[in-house]
Amino acid sequence: MKLVFATNNKHKLEEVQAILPKEIELVSLKEIGCHEDIPETAETLEGNAMQKALFVKEHYDLYCFADDTGLEVEALNNAPGVYSARYAGPGHDAKANMRKLLRELEGKENRNARFRTVIALLLDEKEYLFEGIIEGTIIDQERGTAGFGYDPIFIPSGYDETFAEMGNEIKNTISHRALAVRKLADFLSTLSVKE
Ligand code: IMP
């Protein structure tokens, strides 16, 4: 079965394909001829993921899923959350986002945070949501060079290294995204068993 993953991020496609049952063939936005920027204007991760999946369904009439991820920091009322990519403002990069987060956390004792990924799947006129969460803490300066986004300042619970220090191989087995994708994979496997 062909399934559109509403992304053009090659790394994400490979990471997710490796976890899904092999009967599922992932197809990127580029491969279906979708070259526009899909709107992500919702105020929740669930809303954005569903908005992206619905866009593909409405314009291309294909089975598809989409993901959205945010870093939720307890002491900041779960900010930056759905705004994680543009926390320091439009056009800012990961460094600027991390700098802003560390500034906001200055003097705060509670450093608890979690990455949360939501996947929205549209299949046979039905909508499904899958969630992956990894808890951890935000440290006060960057450590490590692997990964992306907020990886250099996030230490997952039970580990001593930041995501950026442990590297993608370990990170991709324990991450929020991996947890959400495994739930999606389990669900899709039950469908292929029934077929
Ligand atoms: P997206 O929904 O996967 O595009 O993620 C939105 C934003 O959340 C990214 O631009 C990053 O700032 C942040 N983010 C998502 N996943 C990760 C991760 O695994 N590590 C660090 N930051 C992440």
- Give me the oligomer status: single chain
Total helical segments: 6
Helical residues, percent: 25-40%
Shape: globular
Given as residue ranges, the uncertain stretches (5+ residues, pLDDT < 50) are: none
Bound compounds:
inosinic acid
- Per DSSP E runs of 2 or more residues, the count of β-strands stands at 7
Report on the biggest sheet: 7 strands, mixed
Termini, distance in Å? 11 Å
Q: How much is the average pLDDT?
A: 94
Instruction: Give Rg in angstroms.
Output: 17 Å
Task: Give the helix/strand class.
Answer: alpha/beta
Beta-strand percent range: 15-25%
Order of helices and strands: EHEHEEHEEEHHH
Structure description:
Helices cover about 35% and strands about 25% of the residues. The chain is built from six helices and seven strands; from the N terminus they run βαβαββαβββααα. The chain has helices at about 10-20, 45-60, 95-105, 165, 170-175, 175-195, and strands at about 1-5, 25, 65-75, 80, 110-125, 125-140, 155. Strands 1, 2, 3, 4, 5, 6 and 7 form a seven-stranded mixed sheet that branches. The longest helix has 19 residues, at about 175-195. The protein starts with a strand and ends with a helix. The mean pLDDT is about 95. The protein binds inosinic acid.
